[in-house]
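== Fold encoding ==
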Amino acid sequence: MGYDKALKASEFQDKGYLQEVNRQFFHPLGLALALVGEVGGIESDAIQIIVIDSREDAEGFYFDEELLDPQKAREVAWQHVNRREAREKALGYWIQPVEGVTNKVGETSEEE
């Protein structure tokens, strides 16, 4: 797979991907993905991507309700719906399987 096209960090955030990857994946694990756009007084699209670790906190991270953007959540959900059929047709799966592991939380695969 080539990497001839990159998504700008600002677009990653503006389109809701940052919100949704945090809300659906990182936050429940006590982690938060963050884009740092200024280092040493130099502002940029994104100079660093960091993962903030709060795994010792039982509740993990969560967004205050006023910070959640329903439109961003809908846009990312629409991307799932829009891309799923073609991906499953091409690859035979939506989420890449790992032998012996299920894609559902708390379950194991039939192969175990």
The chain has a mean pLDDT of 85. Helices lie at 9-14, 17-26, 70-91. Strands lie at 31-39, 42-53. Residues 1-68 form one domain.
